[in-house]
Amino acid sequence: MSRITISKMAAVAFLVLVANFSFAQIDAKATYETKALYKNLKSISKKYLLFGHQHALEYGHGWSGDANRSDVKSVCGSHPAVVGIDFSGFSGRPSAEIEKTKAVLQKNVIATYERGGVTTVSWHFSNPASKGGFYWVDTLSVPAISMIKPGGSQHQAYIEILKTIADFAHSVKAKDGKLAPMIFRPYHEFDGEWFWWGKPHCSREDFIAVWQFTVTYLRDTLGVHNFIYAFSPDNKFTSEADFLERYPGDDYVDLLGMDNYGDFGRDGNYNLEMGVRKLKIISDYAIKKKKLAAFTETGLESIPNPNWWTQTLLKTLQSQKLQLAYVLVWRNDSQSPTHFYAPFPGQISAPDFIKFYNDPHTLFENDLKAIYKRKFLGLF
C-alpha cells in the first residue's frame, strides 16, 4: 500500500543526503548499522516522525503469536516503523522460561530489522533484591538501586543480569550477518513513585551511578555495540532543569525522551499546551547536544476519542518545530477488551488513524528504505 508522493520521496532523500552528520552518539565502537540508524533518525526527525507501537508483533487485541501480524498493519496495511519489546522476562524467572522469552524476542527483533523497521526496548525490571516485581509495593519492595550500584550488596547479582542482556544483544544476528540495532530504554519513568527505581526510592547520586555503570559495563566490558541508549522520565518536569535532575551526563545518553499519558487524555484530562512545552524542552536539548529526541511512550487507553490521532496527537507533534524521531503508543492486550492503545479493525478511531497514517508527517515501516545504510536514500 503506497501513500508516499514523488515530491515527498525527493524531499526526504535531499534532507538526509545534505544533512550535517555531526552527532553525539556515546559508543565510538557502535556497529555500522547502529551508527547509520542514529544518523538517519536524527535527519528524519527534522521533518518527519516514525510511528511506534509496544509489543506490536507479539500480540494484539484478541490474538497472540500470529506470524507477521500487528493490529496496526490490519488497519492501515503497514507494521509500525518502531516496534517495542521488553526485557522484563530476562530476570526473576526460571532459566527455562527466560530462554523461551529470549527466543521469541530474538525472532521478533531480527524480523523487524530484516523488514527495515526499528526496535526499541523497555525494561520492566523485577526488583533483584525483594519481592514486588517491578512495581513498588510498600510491604514488599526494598530500595534496590542503592544495592545494585558498584559496591552494593546486590551488585554481583546485577552484573549477572546485565550479562543476560548482553548475551541477547549479541544473539540478534540477521541473515546478512549483522546485529540488529536496538534503542535500549532502561529505568523509564524514574521521576514517578510506581517503580522500585522511582525518585522516592533512591537518591539522585545512586540512580546516576547505576545508570553510568549499566552503560559502561554493557558497552565497554561486555562489548555490546548495537544499543542506542534512551533516557526517559515521566511527565513530572516543567523545565529543562527539572528534566535533567537525574540526567547521567551526555557521555551516557544517546536519546532524550518522555513518557506522557497524563497530558494527552488520560482520565478525560487534556493539557496539550503543557504536553507541547515538555516535548519542546526535550527537542531543544537534543538539538543543542546533537542527540536524538523521541516521544517514548504515550497513548489513550481504549481510544474513546474518535479523532484522537489527528486532532490530539498529530496536531501536538506538528507544533513548535519539534524534532522527534518517533512516537510510541502502548500495547494492545490480547485478552482485555479495554486495554489497548492502537486501533484494530472496527475500533472507533480506526478511520482517523488511517488519516494519521496518510499524513505526510508520519512514517510507518513500509515507508522506510535502507535506514541501516549511511547513504540513506529516503523513503519508498
From TrEMBL:
One of its GO terms (cellular component) is extracellular region. The active site is at 189 (proton donor), 297 (nucleophile). It is found in: Secreted. This is Mannan endo-1,4-beta-mannosidase. It comes from the Bacteria. The keyword Signal applies. It holds the Pfam family Glyco_hydro_26. Its EC number is 3.2.1.78. It catalyses: Random hydrolysis of (1->4)-beta-D-mannosidic linkages in mannans, galactomannans and glucomannans. It comes from Flavobacterium restrictum. Belongs to the glycosyl hydrolase 26 family. GO terms for molecular function: mannan endo-1,4-beta-mannosidase activity. Residues 32-366 form the GH26 domain.
